[in-house]
Design goal:
alpha+beta; 5-stranded mixed β-sheet; 15 strands
Length: 373
């Protein structure tokens, strides 16, 4: 049984976190279910374990670059300008937004609406997808690291691996099936284009990253952040780096995403029609620190929610492949030797999962000299 307000633990009583987490997980109601039950105080295991005093910069002080892709294919000068902007953003912050990226406003709106429909349907219908078994075609739960993280985040997620081996359509939730398939096809095209631009920004053949299978895997994670009665006590997503090559994010207009830059949190404010792009930790590894993954988080506000976002992760994840990744040889020199040893994506993901959110980038484990950060 999940504790509600009347079951609150007094400061002097013994707190059995493991039992409370287990009861919540086995209820399969998610964070949305807690809100629907009318709670006014969140369970203790959602309380964030650390409070930072890092300042937050608003848009008037700093903004994430917005890169317009219009005219990319028909004008060499324009393409060079876009590549240069991608290069600058990837080297200095690891985050940027793109507009005129080929996915229509109607498709993006329907994708966000489809995610809302999934979470706002009857709880008993959603329960059929609730699992922590990642071999399932759809993995819906609250926090993948619920049992291992120091504190749980205030969000529900469902995850679908759309490439290289997509699930059968009938295995997807009917309420958002068609748009999930269509959006995944379109975001894959955007990802392939982005990897071309990033390859060129690195001085490589445009197809280089595609040819080494950076676009082989696509995992789509759909997040739902219901209104939180005590947003100051928890997080939407705790500070982390993405454990992939590249992430393409579709967010609604509520906001909350923040990026850590020069020891300051910078808000990534929603921009009409834009997709947010960020460098993944595996791309940092294979570019030998040329492009770096950046820590980011989602904060909650009193009047926020429900917030919806869709993260498209380009990575094969824990799929069994023997392909080894190491710093790209064309980027190395006598003055720039490899900083990382080789790894499979599966081993990298396994280490990251075991490590959890401990404030260290997963790629650090694979450094040739771990003393260098």
């Amino acid at each position: 049984m999940v504790k509600t307000n009347s079951d609150e633990v007094s400061p002097n009583s013994e707190y059995d976190r493991a039992s409370e987490v287990k009861a919540f997980d086995e209820s399969k109601i998610g964070v949305k279910g807690l809100v629907d039950a009318g709670i006014t105080q969140i369970p203790r295991f959602f309380h964030k374990s650390k409070h930072d005093d890092i300042p937050v910069l608003r848009d008037a002080q700093f903004s994430i670059p917005i890169i317009d892709l219009e005219g990319l294919d028909g004008d060499r000068v324009k393409r060079r300008e876009i590549v240069d902007r991608v290069k600058e953003a990837s080297e200095n912050g690891g985050f940027f937004q793109i507009v005129n990226h080929s996915i229509s406003e109607s498709v993006m709106k329907e994708m966000k609406d489809g995610v809302r429909r999934f979470y706002e349907q009857e709880t008993e219908v959603k329960k059929a997808f609730y699992t922590r078994d990642f071999s399932k075609p759809v993995v819906y739960n609250t926090n993948n690291g619920l049992y291992t993280s120091p504190s749980a985040d205030w969000r529900d997620t469902f995850l679908v691996r759309m490439a290289p081996d997509p699930p059968k359509p009938e295995d997807l939730p009917l309420i958002c099936r068609d748009i999930l398939v269509e959006y995944s096809k379109q975001v894959m095209k955007v990802g392939i284009l982005l990897f071309e631009l990033i390859s060129e920004a690195l001085g490589l053949n445009p197809n280089h990253l595609h040819d080494i299978d950076c676009t082989e895997g696509l995992v789509v994670i759909c997040n739902y952040y219901p209104p939180c009665p005590q947003p100051e006590l928890t997080m939407g997503i705790t500070k982390h780096v993405d454990i992939d090559f590249l992430t393409v994010l579709l967010q609604d207009d509520i906001g909350g995403l923040q990026v850590l830059n020069n020891n300051q949190w910078i808000e990534v404010s929603p921009h009409p029609g834009a997709l947010v792009v960020n460098i993944g930790d595996l791309l940092q590894l294979i570019t030998n620190d040329r492009f770096k993954s950046v820590e980011h988080r989602v904060v909650l506000a009193n009047d926020m929610g429900p917030r919806v976002s869709i993260s498209s992760f380009f990575c094969t994840g824990n799929l069994q492949t023997s392909k080894l990744y190491r710093p790209i040889k064309e980027l190395l020199s006598e003055n720039n030797p490899p900083k990382y040893r080789e790894t499979t994506v599966k081993d990298y993901i396994a280490h990251s999962t075991k490590q959890g959110l401990d404030g260290t980038k997963p790629s650090h484990h694979f450094r040739v000299d771990p003393k260098i950060k």
